[in-house]
Amino acid sequence: MLPFQEKHEKSLLGFALVVMLVLIYNKYFAQSPMPIVYQAVIAVAAYLLIALDVLVSAFKTLFKQRRMSEQFLMMIATFGAFGLCDLPEALAVMIFYKIGELFEEYASGRAHNDISSLVKLKPSFVRLVDENGNEQKVKPRQVKIGDVFKVLKGEVIAIDGNLCDESAAIDTSALTGESEPRLYTCGQSVPSGCINQGQVIHLRANTLSKNSSITRLLNLIEDAAASKSKPENLIRRFSVWYTPLVVGCAVLLALVPLFYSQAEYSDWIERALVFLVVSCPCALVLSVPLSFFGGMGAISRIGVIVKGSIHIETLSRLKAIAFDKTGTLTYGKFTVNKIHSVSLSEDELLSYAVSLEKNSTHPIALSIVEYGKQRKVKEYDVGSVIEKSGMGLESTINGHDVRIGRKEYISKYCGTFDYTEEDEESSYVYISLDNEFSGVIAIADTLKPSAGTMLNSLHSMGIKTVLISGDKRAVAEGISRKLGIKECYYEQTPQGKLDTLNSLKSKLSPVAFAGDGLNDAPVVSASDVGIAMGDIGSASAIEAADVVIMHGDLTAISRTVLLAKKTYKLAISNMYFVMLVKLLILLLGALGFANIWLAIFGDVGVLILAVCNAMRALKFK
Questions:
Q1: What are the transmembrane regions (predicted)?
Q2: Least confident of 236-240, 245-249, 314-318, 452-456
Q3: Which CATH fold would you assign to the domain 335-444?
Q4: Is the pTM of this model over 0.70?
Q5: How far is the C-alpha of 207 from the C-alpha of 219, rounded, in Å?
Q6: Which CATH superfamily is domain 304-331+447-550 in?
Q7: Rg value, the chain, Cα
Q8: What are the extents of the domains in the chain?
Q9: pLDDT value at position 350?
Q10: Is 127 within 8 Å of 149 (Cβ atoms)?
Q11: What is the pLDDT of residues 24-39, one digit of tens each?
């Protein structure tokens, strides 16, 4: 839109509307109408005031991009109406086209704002605090890792940072959808994009602004629009040759009198104009993407990010979902419940385990390290650590060859040894020194309460659920029985998980995989839809998955699938509705039963109805 039009948009549209009503009165009701020259002057003046940007855009697209746009359709339709002296009709076509544009802007803005509210606005400054307590306002990009900054009550946190104070109440609803404030304690990492609800807090930056949670999420939202669904891609490809085809058909209609002597030129030209007006693809081009965008907005309100409408479409057709256990169906916060040592004291065995496991980021390893800290056991210096993917770790400690990991990994070096695992729901970590079995550490995890509800909901939708776990058979099958998962794969290495998923995809498609987005990154990426249960601020979760659950409530998975089904159904119904109405009016117009006013309804009226229908997606629950 040109600057003067943007500034006086509503006034110009109002003026054109008044002129149109005057022209309608003169054409259809006035006994002594205004001279046609005067009518033409005010009609052209009003037309140019509101349509200049449309004309400029039509010519630019035609001559620079060598293609015919929807603006070109409107231009030649209105020029044709002027040529037939249908002045009110010519002006009406452009007025209602502009009204449709306004409605588009409003609807698109609503959908975009709904998604953007997920992360709120990024703060423009940070209150940097130096060693002497002096405060300085700087831009977020100027903050370095290790800098301390202050956040006042009610302010949005600009950069991820570790809490320097004893505790803080943080509103994470913008990222997680949780209504209750989350309590953080000293040393914990607080993500950006959240609001400080308590007193003044101090944070030590642990990332740069460009890598912060809020920046990544904002970039993710902006990039999501590039990932189009099949219906959207079809419409985009269709629109390239659609306009030339429509213009060609309109020209053929206008030329009918050349081949049929009894045909009236004015009658067939009007039919061609009806064809042009009703063929404007705005309703189709807008309503389908808007349905998907509205669905993404509805999903964002439950603390879930979907990376593009193509994943909405895939989720709507989902046949199966495979789950990892640790950190997905369970909290992934293990506790040591038993230590069995063969030759060493429990503390000595734990010391070797802690010294080796501190080199791993696996949740089980972290729990052993944490338990060792609680018991204040000694930590030894460790040589170079060799990691056997999915099996265990080995290194030299105090002159001993120490290994820790799965039973089959340890027995490979120690031979067979006698130990009965007592609890089927516990995980067991085996330890050997110098190829001699030295002991076992038993570790338990806790199921998330929302797991059962989520799985029941998926089953009610006819979606098959599968467990693919690295745990031993007893643990994996015990969890499966508890949750009603019929198909269970256990003792899976990362490569094994990948092979199992590919096997599932060959039988059922599409298949989703839900994991923690870190250890399961390869299989998450390989699935038709990767779902990451990532803690807020987890870069790996955001990058690896197609869908990111920003909190721990598993029911968000089933709710996302349900919303995806509703969204896809709405988008397809919108597409068929628009096409059916337009085809009907096209047929009536070609046969001479529809005038230009019905064509205007077929264009703008259908656009407004389709957009209103698409906006329903924003209210999906």
A1: 12-30, 36-59, 238-260, 272-293, 568-590, 596-615
A2: 236-240
A3: Calcium-transporting ATPase, cytoplasmic domain N (3.40.1110)
A4: no
A5: 16
A6: HAD superfamily/HAD-like (3.40.50.1000)
A7: 33
A8: 3-115+226-292+567-619, 126-155+159-211, 304-331+447-550, 335-444
A9: 95
A10: yes
A11: 999 888 888 899 999 9
Strands 400-405 and 392-397 turn out to be antiparallel
Query: Hey, what amino acid is at 65?
Result: Q
Task: Enumerate residues 6+ apart whose C-beta is below 8 A from 591.
Answer: none
Residue-by-residue DSSP string for 573-600: HHHHHHHHHHHHHHHHHHTT---HHHHH
| Alpha-carbon gap, residue 143 to 499, rounded angstroms | 44
For residue range 195-244, list pLDDT tens digits in order. 898 889 999 999 999 888 777 766 665 555 455 556 656 655 666 677 77
Instruction: Decide if domain 126-155+159-211 falls under CATH 2.70.150.10.
Output: yes
pLDDT band of residue 96 (cuts 50, 70, 90) is confident
Q: Which residues pair with 403 in a beta bridge?
A: 394, 432
Is 225:111 a contact under the CB 8 Å cutoff? no
pLDDT of residue 539: 57
Give SS3 for 257: helix
For the segment 75-85, what is each residue's pLDDT rounded down to a tens digit?
A: 887 888 888 78
1-5, 12-16, 78-82: which has the minimum mean pLDDT? 1-5
Catalytic option among 160, 171, 324, 516: 324
Asked whether the bond before 510 is cis by omega within 30 degrees of 0, the reply is yes
* Topology match between the domains 304-331+447-550 and 335-444: no
Alpha helical stretches, state H, 436-529? 450-460, 473-483, 494-507, 521-526
Token output for 340: 């069995």
Percent of the chain with pLDDT over 70: 88
399/199 Cα distance (integer angstroms) = 52
- Per-residue pLDDT for 518 more than 70? no
| Measured distance CA(152)–CA(155) in Å, rounded | 6
Grouping H, G, I as helix, E, B as strand and the rest as coil, residue 615 is helix
Distance CA 221, CA 403 (A): 45
d(CA 547, CA 172) in angstroms, rounded, equals 19
Q: Look at residue 459 in the predicted model and tell me its pLDDT.
A: 96
Average of pLDDT values for 431-449? 90
DSSP 3-state of 161:
strand
Residue 523 near residue 501 (C-beta atoms within 8 A): yes
Mean pLDDT, the chain, as a whole number? 84
- Residues linked to residue 387 through DSSP beta bridges, in sequence order: 393
Please say whether the beta carbons of 218 and 198 come within 8 A. Answer: no
Catalytic residue flag (residue 324):
yes
